[in-house]
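so i finally got all the pieces together for this one. its two components total, 728 residues if u count the protein bits. some of the lines might not be protein, just check the labels. i wanna see the whole assembly predicted at once instead of chain by chain like last time, that was a mess tbh
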Amino acid sequence: MTTIFVCEDSLDGILTGVYEAWDSRLGHENVRLQTEAEGTLELFCQYRPVRRDLEKAEKVLRTVRRRMGEKAREAVCYAAACTDERKADAIYRLIVLGLSMADGTKAVDCLQNPAVLLVEKLRYKAWHEAERMLGFLRFEELENGVLYARMEPPYAVLPLIAPHFADRLYQENWIIHDLRRGQAAVHRAGGGWFLTEAEALSTLEKEGRSGAEQEFQKLWQAFCSSIAIEERRNPRCQQNLLPLRFRPYMTEFGADRSRTVLN
Amino acid sequence: MQHTRIPEQLPVMEKLKILSDAAKYDVACTSSGTSRGNNGKGIGNCFDAGICHSFAADGRCISLLKILFTNECICNCRYCLNRSSNDVPRATFTPDEICELVMGFYRRNYIEGLFLSSGILNSPDYTMELLYQTLRKLRTEYHFGGYIHVKAIPGADPALIEKTGFLADRMSVNLELPTAEGLRRLAPAKTREKILRPMRQVQNRMEENRNELALYRSAPRFVPAGQSTQMIIGATPESDFQILSVAESLYQKFDLKRVFYSAFVRVNDDSVLPALPGGPPLLREHRLYQADWLLRFYGFEAGELLSEARPNLNVLFDPKCDWALRHLEEFPVEINRASYQTLLRVPGIGVKSAQRIVKARRLGSLDFPDLKRIGVVLKRALYFITCRGKTLYPVKIEEDYITRNLLYVKEKLPPQLQGDVTYRQLSLFDDGMPLSFGEQAELLAAEGQELLTAGADAGGAGRFV
């Protein structure tokens, strides 16, 4: 009988699941991993809920890093940010494969293996999303000088992009708010950043912006429209590269201009 | 050092509108090539791959704040909007205004850095000095650590160019037109020698800087992201072969990072300039970029793609397809055995898929369904490859047949070309009509099924032993 380990839908949750599934000694072919909140239950299998355990997750990630290399660690982290329902099991299979090989760093290259290929694809998807978010995120200055950004990404990329901004805007106080997941990354000037639940932040959206904010937004809008060459106008290409879903939170498009092309 | 006050009569908003509008014909907007962390004192870092922050209505990326320092100019180049004989509104920034704009935009994550070009105000030296002062202010007073791309002004004092280069990430000098002859006709104030001199200087200084960095890791870095240039395409009658040869020699002899091609936009009504009823030559520009990529990443040479006898790129096919069709004697190649360089030359296989193939085949032989999953564009590649000695389905390695089939794939072509692609009249007799997408998919699915069942037999119980 198959035993299904149901883990929390987060990197730590999945890694704890990997630890528990391995530790259960049921045999790799008799276990499966699943993330929470999936509809159909299967007959003839046993469900075992896994509670998130940071220590176990940390152990697994460290082992992946040591035995399978930095690339594998990154692949696991990025793949776990996706929404695919097969991700937990694919990550488990990748780790099983990597730890069974003499040279674990080669595991991520075995693209013929369906699980490895899936992890690689998910990694690419999350990486692509995170990379676009690095560019398309827009900060607004609040009255107290704090920079505040909103986003609604399909994948949980917030922890993946926060380190980039922590380095770039090191001397600034900033908050990035993931509206879809109710999470926020908070950074203190000259210090580190941390992840937090964002209920307390709901007032920020409506809070006043600083005096200079309006002016810079106008300048930026003017720049974006004057930089386009009329003879080369190509809204189709623009939309391919910058899909509409990003636009509501972008200064140059704005909520009311989200469906319009810049001109 | 000269101290002349720059008149400040316009509000920043007006200046920004005028000077970004004047800068938009510069193509380069890349922010790649440097990786640098925050210096701890100020704001900003550099991301090696570059980041696009927005896309304008023409589909071009907005990564840097692209502005001119001034659009006043003593030159009267025929193609340029800012030539001295044109009656356009003129404006000039002050270094402080530029710094404030950059900092304000950068903090809000609008931009990756600054692209600063300029018309020539008073003299090349005077203009270069202003650019240098702006960069110095930005780097030392505002502690800006983001990306800076600055133009080297031809004819400026080499000492000034050198000082500026230590503050910038990328420098560029525009070649403007591919040949010296074209330059004489359209930009009488500029000569080839004058443009190439600063380019050579930057190249030599970068070379020296590499040696310094090898000795002292913390030595100041000179133009770490390399230099680039740009050429206007279609304003003068040069052929693609000439243009590509120039680009190739720039890459080889001047160690350039990028050559940009800019389809000519007719902004001035001048009798020397060609009329362009169909708009700027965008398809030609696109094909040149494709060929440029082949030069830089695929190991091609300009002489292989074009020749005196065939001076222009084929509009219907991308340059690699075109090359492959003329060199069918080198095909088909066996995916499981061909070298990386050979794989790169197959249409439908790019750098990424070639790398993946080389990696994946170490651990087992590959078949067509694997290639599809790896990301090879099979509808293009299938005429040129075999897997385990077999083609996907029986095809003829014959120029006529493949050309017809590839046209059937229909790459997106501009509307004026789509109608008249009648390569050959249809024959009543079936001489190898291409398979439809449905049929291809069926074939692939059938093969995939076979592979799956075979795998199940071989795997089974012993897999985890």
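Helices of chain A lie at 11-23, 54-80, 87-100, 114-136, 158-168, 211-226, 235-241.
The CA atoms of residues 183 and 197 of chain A lie 5 Å apart.
anyway lmk what u think
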